[in-house]
Design brief:
Layout lengths: L5 E7 L7 H11 L5 E5 L20 H12 L2 E5 L9 H10 L9 E6 L5 H13 L3 E2 L5 E2 L7 H13 L2 H13 L5
Parallel strand pairs: 1-2, 1-3, 3-4, 4-5, 4-6
Length: about 180
C-alpha cells in the first residue's frame, strides 16, 4: 500500500523547454497516481557555478530554495540526457551544491530516461547519486525512447507507455519503496 500524499521532486538535466527528458517528466507528473504530486524543478539553469567558498552562511538563496525542495520531497526523480558522454553541466552543478548538505542522504531516487542511448551519462549519474548516499530504487527506473522523434511521435510513444502501464507501474513501484519498502 502506498502512503499518500507523497511529494516527488523531479530534476531534469536538460534545460531545453522542448527536451525529451522534460517531456517524460511532464508525463510522469501528469499521470501520477492519486495522492502523488510530481513537481519539476525550474531552478537548475539559474544556479550559480558551485563554489565551496559560497557555502554555509554564504549560500545563495536559490541554492537554499533547491535544497529546501529536495528536503521536502519524499523522493526525487532524475531525467538526464547525455552530453559528450557525460552528465550535463547544469545538473552536475546542482548536485555539487547538495554534496556537503544533509538533504540527499537516504532520499529515494528514481531515474527516468528518454533515450535508447546515453548509458555513459546514466552510469555517471548513478555513481554520483550513490556517492551522495541517495537511495536508488532501480526497480522503478524507466527508459522510454523519445529521442529523435518529432512531437507527434513522442506523444505516441508516451501514450503507448501509459496504455501499457509503464509510467504507472514505475511510479507505483517507486512510491511503494519510499515508505518502508526495501530499496
Amino acid at each position: 500500500m502506498i502512503r499518500t500524499p507523497l511529494f516527488l521532486y523531479a530534476l531534469c538535466g536538460s534545460q531545453r523547454k522542448a527536451s525529451t527528458n522534460r517531456r517524460l517528466l511532464e508525463a510522469l507528473r501528469d499521470h501520477a497516481p492519486e495522492g502523488v504530486t510530481v513537481e519539476i524543478c525550474e531552478l537548475i539553469g539559474d544556479l550559480p557555478i558551485f563554489n565551496p567558498d559560497c557555502e554555509g552562511e554564504n549560500t545563495p538563496e536559490i541554492v537554499e530554495e533547491l535544497a529546501a525542495k529536495v528536503r521536502a520531497a519524499d523522493g526525487v526523480i532524475f531525467a538526464c540526457p547525455e552530453y559528450a558522454h557525460g552528465l550535463p553541466g547544469g545538473l552536475k552543478n546542482a548536485l555539487d551544491w547538495l554534496v556537503s548538505r544533509d538533504e540527499a542522504p537516504f532520499k529515494p531516487v528514481m531515474i527516468a530516461h528518454a533515450s535508447h542511448r546515453g548509458d555513459f551519462a546514466l552510469e555517471q549519474l548513478t555513481e554520483v547519486l550513490k556517492t551522495m548516499s541517495f537511495a536508488l530504487v532501480p526497480s522503478a527506473n524507466i527508459r522510454i525512447s523519445l529521442l529523435g522523434k518529432d512531437a507527434e511521435g513522442q506523444q505516441v510513444s508516451l501514450r503507448e507507455s501509459m496504455d501499457h502501464g509503464v509510467l504507472d507501474t514505475a511510479l507505483k513501484e517507486f512510491c511503494s519503496r519510499i515508505d518502508g519498502g526495501p530499496v
